[in-house]
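Narrative of accomplishments. A recurring question from our advisory board has been how the design workflow behaves on a single, concrete structure rather than in aggregate. To address it, we present the structure tokens for one chain from the evaluation set, followed by the sequence designed for it. No filtering or post-editing was applied between the two.
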């Protein structure tokens, strides 16, 4: 079989359903920085805002680390996230290269994404994203990190990029109540099991949620939606993973 056919077989379409949030990560090539200073981050935020408007995707959480980006967004239609990331990535790389006098690729291949069920699973992903700077020992207070959604969700400052998901709105009837509730969630450390699950579903680009959520995704996409154990061959047929 030609090598080109093997590449096409390996690149199955991502799980993508309208109205279902996606947790997205994009890393710098060879884990090198994709932001060299705050001006780079400011430019990325500006371009992200334009890409959200152009595709009508809704952003619920984000963090701009030194060498990677996490986003949690809901597309209005199939393919909208892909278009958003394509436009955003292409424009940012061109401006980054021009500003820093470089050429060539910036990102490490294609971005990765997984579908996320609402309620508890979505809130775990939001916390995972906002707590990235703490896990990286960049700050002890996630709301003090200037380049994430945390300050907005904690009621410290407004961020026009963000649109609350219904699950986030359900944390309280007022903005103050929601902020207080989210601060309480941030104070509860994510378990090692939760961290491992979020990373596995993102790495394998599956559907992070309960069995019935995975069954729905599987029925609509005809694709396996759960994660597979490491170093274990895939089983034939469709199955629901935990």
């Amino acid at each position: 079989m030609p090598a080109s056919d093997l590449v096409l077989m390996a690149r199955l379409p991502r799980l993508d359903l309208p109205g279902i949030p996606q947790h997205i990560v994009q890393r710098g090539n060879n884990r090198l920085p994709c932001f060299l200073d705050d001006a780079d981050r400011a430019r990325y935020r500006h371009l992200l805002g334009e890409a959200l408007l152009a595709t009508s995707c809704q952003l619920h959480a984000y963090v701009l680390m030194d060498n990677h980006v996490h986003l949690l967004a809901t597309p209005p239609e199939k393919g909208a996230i892909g278009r958003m990331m394509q436009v955003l990535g292409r424009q940012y790389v061109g401006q980054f290269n021009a500003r820093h006098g470089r050429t060539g690729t910036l990102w490490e291949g294609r971005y990765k994404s997984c579908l996320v069920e609402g309620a508890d699973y979505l809130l775990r992903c939001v916390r995972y994203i906002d707590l990235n700077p703490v896990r990286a020992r960049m700050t002890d207070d996630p709301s003090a990190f200037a380049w994430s959604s945390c300050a907005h969700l904690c009621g410290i400052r407004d961020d026009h990029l963000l649109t609350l998901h219904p699950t986030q709105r359900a944390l309280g009837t007022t903005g103050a109540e929601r902020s207080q509730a989210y601060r309480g969630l941030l104070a509860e450390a994510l378990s090692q099991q939760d961290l491992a699950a979020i990373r596995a579903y993102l790495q394998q680009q599956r559907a992070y949620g309960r069995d019935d959520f995975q069954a729905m995704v599987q029925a609509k996409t005809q694709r396996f939606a759960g994660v597979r154990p490491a170093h274990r061959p895939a089983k034939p047929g469709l199955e629901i993973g935990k």
